[in-house]
Amino acid sequence: MAIVQYPHIAFGPGDVPILAGTQTKVVEIVLDQLAHGWDGQEIQRQHPHLTLAQIYSALAYYHDHQAEIDQDIEKRLESVEKIKLEVGESSIRLKLKALGRLP
């Protein structure tokens, strides 16, 4: 089996895959594509400090490690929901609800 190398991928604290020479996590690039449907060029417009090569390397890494990164995304979503429950609704959200601006 061939060993795949990702020249633009490094590993930060906790072995989190990041784009080499940056603090941008691979999962952040993946979420831009999944959440917004952005292609590589749009992701670069949103993150001008990244090269297209770095972006496409992050996406290639994702496709080769999809189960692992999808699991990380799921953990992040669970963490957000937990925090939302602990913190409760913000005062501005409560005011907007009282004004009938939010359901």
Helix content: 55-70%
Question: What structural class is derived from the secondary structure elements?
Answer: mainly alpha
CATH architecture heading: Orthogonal Bundle
Q: Give the rounded overall mean pLDDT.
A: 94
CATH class: Mainly Alpha
Radius of gyration: 18 Å
Largest sheet: 2 strands, antiparallel
What tags apply to this protein structure?
103 residues; mainly alpha; Arc Repressor Mutant, subunit A; two-stranded antiparallel sheet
Explain what this protein looks like in three dimensions.
The protein is mainly alpha-helical and 103 residues long. It has one domain: Arc Repressor Mutant, subunit A, CATH 1.10.10. 59% of the residues lie in helices and 6% in strands. The protein has a two-stranded antiparallel ribbon with strand order 1-2. The longest helix is centred in the last third of the chain and has 22 residues, at 66-87. The relative contact order is 0.12. The model has no long low-confidence stretch (mean pLDDT 94).
Give a quick precis of the structure:
By secondary structure, the chain is mainly alpha-helical. It has five helices and two strands, in the order ββααααα. Helix 1 packs across helix 3.
Task: Give a topology summary.
Elements: E1 9-11, E2 17-19, H1 26-36, H2 40-46, H3 52-64, H4 66-87, H5 91-98
Antiparallel strand pairs: 1-2
